[in-house]
């Protein structure tokens, strides 16, 4: 998906920290380890966002461009692909929310550890 | 009005007023008044978000839309739900970390200036009022239909209640009214869904067959394409729905009412579960309405289909259940409008009065007094507007709100948080172009310009019902052009870095003020 890759690249460029000067925020020295954590968080965020938009917009797009296929019966008895896809959006949302929660918890824990080490 | 209805309504009014009384004793600081001092737990806040979000348009409108249009009605709710992923992934945590009471705080933590605050306050105020007035008007009609009481009396009751909640109880009362609403709404729709299933012996294929028999669409009821014929309209609506929530001030404001980002995430987890399950139940209710009442009966009672859920309740549970569902609809409305009053109040009294007029120097007492008077003023003015607008069709404004939010607040929030080069000029041009474009597109569109009963009886200049697909890119483009044509701000790399690290990690907030 070249467009998607381009968007990801662009988003990366927008926020790349070019300089690595030391910062002190709220009495805490922000060093390379904190920046690395944020970078890792972003690396996770961008593809996930791409997946969310792709999965969501594929539903209207497939209904617009492939109505015949979407109205065919799927492998679940009595359910067409259109209904199956629409229903799948719900567990998809719950899964993505849960995924974010788990990853953010890890991020918070690592950040806390880093900050604890920094404190005198 | 018979006794059953009366008792249900009195019960709800008394319960919410008790909550307000209890909250009023606790709303004695600005922090309490605006954000309940972050005292809600994630789950409570999740329920309140759901209560803030699910309007009567969702509850009654979507059931009706499913009953009339089948598949396409259900698609509406999918967009509403997925929009929470955009909120969670892009804006939730940074908004919580950067803001104190309002969206103006969030943007001004990067671009601190009065100009910026004016614009953010105006945007939040306009969106909240635009959303509130049609809700009030719709509630007047709804109560008239359900309870047979006069339009003006219904509007005055609802307008009065929302004002009382906010003036006396602030965010604490608003939150708890919304939580109660979610509990009542979810249990009511769950009960109704169970009754629908039991009417068909828990046999879903049988229910589906009955639906096909009783709708004029026949088999095609379960196929897409009855509501959204035009692909551009369809795509445009889906775009506005998915991006709109992340720009709605009354929803984002709820992210300040918990104490940390863990609770923010818990709030959004609970609200997506509640909202997702709710929409599944509306599907059952929509199908149940067709299968038990038939299309003709529904249309004969109300051609818009908004009465689907109440009619279904009457069919399966008689007057008692109808009274219960009407009470749910009533609670739904007051909870949503109360949320809108408090968001408009914050925009005015916190951003404009405290920060701009008083240069951030007003005392706690003055701020609290200003907030209460503002809430009273907003409640009164919007009730008066709603009373005057009885004869004019304003329901389209509800869906417009999502477009306005997605075209103005959403681009500004995302670019402020994530774009290093973004400037204050860009934020202002983005906000203004998004607001102006979306409002202009509505005025020039078929909602207003319509030879057949529109405000302006002429052919629409821009014949598109859902102008999100044009307005949202204009919002982003305005922000982009404003940025590249403005002087590069003196804000250095380091300052953005500081801001960005704060927004992503909250490091500075640990030591008091950012």
TrEMBL record, chain B:
Protein name: Symporter YwcA
Gene Ontology CC annotation, any one: plasma membrane
GO biological process: plasma membrane acetate transport
Domain of life of the source: Bacteria
Gene name of this polypeptide: ywcA
Keywords: Cell membrane, Membrane, Symport, Transmembrane, Transmembrane helix, Transport
Membrane topology note: Multi-pass membrane protein
Provenance organism: Ornithinibacillus bavariensis
Native organism taxonomy: Bacteria, Bacillati, Bacillota, Bacilli, Bacillales
GO terms of molecular function: acetate transmembrane transporter activity; symporter activity
A Pfam family reported for this protein in Swiss-Prot or TrEMBL: SSF
Record localization: Cell membrane
Sequence similarity: Belongs to the sodium:solute symporter (SSF) (TC 2.A.21) family.
Entry's transmembrane regions: 6-24, 45-68, 74-92, 119-147, 153-176, 183-202, 234-256, 277-300, 320-349, 370-389, 395-419, 426-448, 468-486
């Amino acid at each position: 998906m070249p467009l998607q890759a381009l968007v990801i690249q662009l988003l990366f460029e927008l926020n790349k920290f070019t300089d690595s000067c030391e910062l002190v925020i709220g009495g805490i020295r922000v060093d390379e380890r904190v920046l690395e954590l944020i970078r890792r968080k972003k690396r996770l965020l961008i593809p996930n966002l791409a997946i969310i938009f792709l999965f969501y917009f594929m539903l209207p797009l497939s209904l617009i461009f492939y109505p015949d296929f979407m109205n065919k019966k799927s492998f679940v008895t009595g359910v067409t692909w259109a209904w199956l896809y629409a229903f799948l959006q719900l567990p998809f949302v719950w899964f993505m929310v849960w995924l974010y929660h788990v990853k953010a918890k890890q991020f918070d824990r690592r950040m806390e550890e880093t900050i604890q080490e920094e404190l005198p | 009005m018979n006794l059953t209805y009366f008792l249900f309504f009195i019960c709800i009014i008394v319960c919410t007023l008790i909550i307000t009384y209890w909250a009023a004793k606790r709303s004695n600081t600005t922090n309490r008044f605006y954000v309940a001092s972050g005292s809600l737990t994630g789950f409570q806040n999740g329920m309140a978000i759901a209560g803030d979000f699910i309007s009567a348009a969702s509850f009654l409108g979507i059931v009706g839309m499913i009953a009339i249009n089948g598949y396409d009605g259900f698609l509406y709710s999918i967009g509403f739900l997925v929009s929470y992923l955009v909120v969670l992934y892009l804006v939730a945590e940074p908004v919580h970390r950067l803001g104190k009471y309002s969206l103006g705080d969030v943007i001004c933590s990067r671009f601190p200036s009065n100009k910026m605050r004016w614009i953010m306050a105006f945007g939040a105020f306009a969106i909240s009022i635009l959303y509130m007035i049609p809700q009030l008007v719709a509630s007047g009609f709804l109560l008239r239909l359900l309870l047979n009481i006069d339009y003006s009396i219904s509007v005055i009751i609802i307008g009065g209640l929302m004002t009382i909640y906010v003036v006396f109880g602030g965010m604490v009362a608003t939150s708890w009214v919304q939580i109660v609403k979610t509990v009542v709404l979810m249990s009511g729709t769950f009960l109704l869904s169970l009754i629908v299933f039991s009417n068909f012996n828990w046999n879903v294929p049988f229910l589906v067959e009955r639906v096909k028999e009783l709708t004029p669409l026949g088999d095609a009821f379960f196929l897409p394409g009855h509501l959204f014929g035009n692909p551009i309209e369809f795509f445009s609506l889906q775009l506005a729905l998915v991006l709109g929530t992340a720009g709605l001030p009354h929803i984002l404001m709820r992210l300040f009412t918990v104490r940390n980002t863990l609770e923010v995430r818990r709030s959004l987890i609970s609200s997506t579960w509640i909202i997702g399950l709710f929409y599944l139940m509306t599907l059952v209710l929509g199908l149940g309405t067709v299968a038990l009442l038939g299309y003709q009966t529904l249309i004969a009672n109300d051609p818009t289909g908004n009465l689907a859920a109440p009619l279904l309740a009457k069919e399966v549970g008689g007057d008692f259940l109808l009274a219960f569902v009407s009470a749910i609809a009533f609670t739904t409305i007051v909870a949503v409008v109360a949320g809108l009053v408090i968001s408009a109040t914050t925009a005015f009294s916190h951003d404009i009065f405290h920060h701009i007029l008083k240069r951030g120097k007003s005392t706690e007492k003055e701020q609290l007094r200003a907030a209460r008077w503002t809430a009273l003023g907003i409640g009164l003015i919007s009730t008066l507007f709603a009373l005057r607008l009885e004869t004019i069709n304003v329901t389209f404004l509800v869906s417009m709100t999502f477009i306005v939010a997605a075209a103005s607040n959403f681009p500004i929030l995302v670019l402020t948080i994530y774009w290093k080069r973004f400037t204050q000029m860009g934020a202002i041009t983005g906000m203004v172009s998004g607001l102006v474009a979306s409002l202009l597109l509505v005025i020039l569109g078929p909602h207003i310009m319509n030879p057949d009963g529109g405000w302006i009886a002429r052919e629409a200049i821009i014949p598109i019902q859902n102008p999100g697909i044009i307005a949202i890119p204009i919002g982003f483009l305005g922000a982009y052009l404003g940025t590249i044509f403005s002087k590069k701000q003196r804000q250095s790399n380091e300052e953005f870095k500081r801001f960005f690290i704060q927004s992503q990690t909250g490091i500075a907030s640990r030591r008091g003020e950012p």
